[in-house]
Amino acid sequence: MNASPNFSLRQVISSDQIQKRVRELGRQISDDYRGQTVVALGILENSFLFMADLLRAVDVPVICAFIKPKYKQSKQGDAPLLEIIFSHELAIAGKHVLLVEGLVHSGVTTEFLMSDLRGRGAASVKLVTLLDRQSARRVQLQPDYFGFLVDDAFLCGYGLGSPEQTGRNLPYVAATT
After folding, report:
1. Could you tell me if residue 52 is inside a domain?
2. What are 67-98's pLDDT values in tens digits?
């Protein structure tokens, strides 16, 4: 399957590898949060398939919500402004928050979100990501849980991709070639 007629895909992580690692992450998260309720916040769009599979592998109570960071250009042409849209406003004061990413790249947005959640009074904020591209990191950020380290420039499949291209529905992760 091609992501678009202009390029082909090379499988990077198989469906079996993903599912095995998701089950391992689910067990680890369940052990770490035993006896507690977790507020899982999925960052759209790249996290939706990973979050669905991950939460099915977690056996502690979970409250599920989504957030969508959007960048807007400021009126003076300064740096872009980050706007965060919650699927619904959550009362997270005193709650344990698990931020769910499909891919952590530079870490800038993720670091901002984690700081914002702490500022809202979360008891704890941890990060889980399917893919971690540490080579692109622009801030000091280390996920608490991650599936795979990657270096490929553009990845798609298993929920990852861009709005302009097909491929999010692939059961594996692929790189464009």
Report:
1. yes
2. 887 766 666 666 666 666 665 578 899 999 99
